[in-house]
Every structure is written in structure tokens, then in C-alpha cells.
Amino acid sequence: MVMARKAKTTVKRRTAPPAGGASGVRKSYIGMTGAQLFHEMLLEAGVEVLFGFPGGSVLPIFDALYQTPIRFVLTRHEQGAAHMADGYARSTGRVGVCIATSGPGATNLVTGLATAFMDSVPVVALTGQVVSNLIGNDAFQEADTTGITRPITKHNMLVKRVEDLGRSIREAFHIASTGRPGPVVVDIAKDATMATLEAEPKLEMDLPGYKPVTAGHMRQIKAAAEMINESRKPVLYVGGGVIIAEASEDLRALVDKGKFPVTTTLMAMGAIDETDPLALQMLGMHGSAAANYAVQECDCLVAVGARFDDRVTGRIETFAPQAKIIHIDIDPASISKTVVVDVPVVGDAKDILRRLLPLIKPVRRPGWLKQIAGWKKQFPFSYSLGERIKPQAVVESIGRLTAHDAIVTTGVGQHQMWTAQYYGWRRPRQLITSGGLGTMGFGLPAAIGAQFGNPGRTVIDIDGDGSFAMTVGELVTAVQYHQPVKVVVLDNHYLGMVRQWQEMFYNRRYSATEHPCPDLPKLAEALGATGMRVTEPGEVDDAINQMLKTEGPVVLVAEVEPEENVFPMVASGKSLHEMDMGRLV
Ligand SMILES: Cc1ncc(C[n+]2csc(CCOP(=O)(O)OP(=O)(O)O)c2C)c(N)n1
Predict the structure, then answer these.
(1) pTM for the complete prediction?
(2) Would you call 190 a catalytic residue per the annotation?
(3) Is 3 a catalytic residue?
(4) 96 has which bridge partners?
(5) pLDDT per position as a tens digit, 368-407
(6) Rounded to whole angstroms, how far apart are CA atoms 291 and 381?
């Protein structure tokens, strides 16, 4: 039976004609089922790949997907589907799409949606819902998906009628990808997908209350320029918004003209090439000393697409104490949310930076730049060598051996911070990491999603043993779909970041942070990937080269110094300049 159905010719079509039809003849949807319309709308949105997992309430949709030209990827867990859609979106700039059934399928998406929400990632999640007349009845596999996801999505909607389905999907893609991007859930009652359209559905979007501002106000841009030109010690504090807005080149132009030192948040690594003498690397809790000192000393802080996260600011009352603050952001709600700013400019970072550029005077500030260069020289990220492999050294090797050009994902913990500090970022969309929510288990599925969006590119998940264990099942997905992701597990046999806090603030009482692992290379082999292990510092380069040369998914386990710590560190409640330099000085 299955063979016979598979033998049918697949319709090879990349994108559907627009509503008016490529031929100019208006397309008719009459006679289509909701499920078929669903499929048409995904094609219209240009969806190439859909990550998900089936179930009862999405059966009609899956049936419509049976012969789809859209690539369907069966994940091993819906969380994996959400993270894959997220990794795809972050690495390509396009909308990532995932699908799950009602009830447990939808609740399994929750962590992934919250992850995407916190980092402003455009994801559309399509969930099945029980038939409309059973909603509210505690029906089998019923969960209040819109209720559950409301606080962790940019928008969500419940579709009960086939007539509303097409418009809702269009709106979802529009909302997810415009303004400040974010995840949108479309929860679809099963009967809406089974019903047949008897009249042409209204597909025009109906979003009178949704008007994201994109053009910054010229008066505010002028005020910002004036403040910057007058400043003696300016610093640019750049966040993920610059990457989302594809504004790195505009940032570059601004830096070239004004010679501004630039620090990037975890979300913005690669917005400026780190080999640039003006690049201060990451700021905040585990940021570079140069970045943190520069922020504390500057007299004008220009935040672009950044949101003053508490991991960035340290003690808020003493953050950038001498600075006038300019805040360029697309989201008016983030202006003066945590730090009161002097000049807000609401709009798209690219648009604003472009219009700011001609107003910037090429003022030279040799004293300030000398001070910046001095900090950079005196306090580079550094670590001592030992008998065991140092995790920082592994990240440095990966950077060097991939010519700083790979797409890198991470889990959450010490390895994430070392990756941010030591890889050597050259371009935007290179580091894919969960910054806002800090989701362990993000690395592997995000890498698979990024690999789907970037065929032929090297994609490496630099992971912790704890984070890797959380979603290791997705290795099977990588194997099934021949996605050659490479995973380097910095195995310290601890939940390292929590252990570090226990060491520093809880008198080394390692409560529940020892993390013995199974034989991970063997596990990788059992799941169909290649497993490798390296234990000697002198063999790290060879192991990484071997991993990069090996076809298909590979898991390389590096047995690293178990009690290595991440430095510098600004402890909770401390000011940015009160860094613990650890063993560095
Ligand atoms: C899903 C989830 N649960 C718990 C945490 C809290 N947490 C933050 S870092 C960390 C330890 C991470 O361990 P591992 O992945 O091995 O990385 P390492 O710090 O050792 O590099 C934990 C438990 C989290 N961030 N995410």
C-alpha cells in the first residue's frame, strides 16, 4: 500500500503562485480542504523546510503534506522541532516553521517557543487542536495552547473555521517576521482542516492594530548625532537587533567614520569582525574587561538593537554611570525599560544607522582610543595551560581550524561562554545560541536547523555534556536526513556553570552538579553517527581535523579540565567594573 502511494508522481513546485496567480488568473480555493489550503499557504510563504512531529489532530494536515515539495523533517521530540526552526531562522534570516499535534505535542514546543521569543527569532509554530465543539471539554489531548503560549509568543491565534485558516497563516508569517521578530502560534481545530471551502476565503490580512515603526524620527536621529559628536569617550553597545536588521555593514561604516569602540552582546557576536582594533568583544557578566571598563568609563553609550539585559548591565544603578545613553531599537516597549535613556530612537537599526552616518563628524579621540587599546592589551581573555585539555583551547582550535568561518551553535553553561569568548567571530549569523532564556539542549537541534538552512557549510555544536544529554535524541534526525553536523562536547563531567557558582558562592558544596555521562562516542555510534574522543591536550587539533574531515554527523568528546572556571566574572549584584579576573592576573 505504502509503496503504491509513494510511487505516485510528486508535484514539483517550489512556491505557489501568489493569490492573483503568476499567470494573472486568480486562483480558486473552492473545493479545497482546510488541510490543502494550509499546504498552499505554506508554499505561498516560501517555506522550504518544516520541522515537526505528527499526531491525531494534525492527521489531515500530514495527509496534505504527504506529497509536498516542502521538505518535511521528522524530529524526535517537538522541542527539537522548535529549536530546529529557530536555528534555521537565526542562521538564514528567514522564518523557521514547526508543527506539532494538540496537547502534549504543543506543550513540548513550549521551551522552544520561549527560547525564540526571548531572542526575537521569527518562528511560526502550527499546532493541531481538538475539534472545535470539544474545545473546553477536556477532550483527549486537549491543552489550552493559546493560553499556555500567550506570554511566550509575539502573537497567537486559535482557528476554528476553515474560512479563517488561510488569512491566519498569512498573518502569522507577517507578524513573525516584521517589526521586532518573534514566534507566532497558529492553533488549528481539526475540523477546520477537514472542512471543504465552499466559497473563496478572504485571505487579505486584517491587522489594523499592528503597525511596527520602521523609520526612525529624524529629530531623534539628529539629537543622537549631536550627542555622539560632542562625546569625548563614546562606546557602541550592539545587540542582536543589528544582526536581525542586517545592519552590520552600516555599523561598519559608522565605526569606520567615527572610530567608535564597539562591544557586542552574546546575541550580536560577529556584528563586527573581532580582529578589528575597535572591537571590544562581549560585555557583561562574562564579558571582556576592556568592554566592561569602556562601558563604565564612557561618556556616551549608543545602544543599538540591544535591551540592557541584566546579564549585560550588572548592577543597574551603577551601569555606565557617566554616560548619556542613546537607545536605537525597533521595539518602543524596550526603551527605558530597565535603564532610563536620554535619546530614544525607535525604528529599524539599518534605516537609522544609514541616516545617522552622514551626520557623524569624523572626530578623532586619540586619548580614549589609547585607553581602549591599553585595556585590550592588558586584559585579553586568557587561561593557563595544564596537564589536561583546557576547554578554552578546544574552542580556540575549532576557531582556527575552521578559519573562523563555521556556523556555531551551543548549549548553555560554561562552554557557551568560552565559545563566545574564544572562537573569534568574523561575521553575523555565525553564533546561534540561546541568550535570553538560556536553554540547555538548544545546541544540537539548532545546529541541525542551521544545517538545513545552510547546506554545504560547516555547522558545529560546541556543547556541554549536560546540555547535549538533554536533546541527544535529535542525533537520529541528523543521521536520518544526512545532515553532517559536528558536535564537540566539552565534557567536564559536571553541570559546569552551576558547579562554578557552587564553588564561588556555596563553599564548594557540589549539590547535584556531578554529571556522569554514558560512553558518549559509543552512544553516538549507536544512534548512527561517528563517535570520537580526545583526552590529551596535544591531540586536540588532530581530533578536530579528523572530525571536520569525517562525512556525516560526528560527536567528538573532549575530556576537559573538570573544575575550570569562566572568567572574568561579574558576580550577581556587582557593577561591571567589579570583575573577578580569577586566575588571569
Ligand atoms: C533547560 C535548563 N535547565 C537548567 C538550566 C540551568 N543551568 C544553566 S547552566 C547549567 C549547567 C550546564 O551544564 P553543561 O551543559 O554540562 O555545560 P557546562 O556549564 O559544563 O559547560 C544549568 C543546569 C538551564 N540553563 N536550562
Answers:
(1) 0.95
(2) yes
(3) no
(4) 123
(5) 999 999 999 999 999 999 999 999 999 999 999 999 999 9
(6) 11
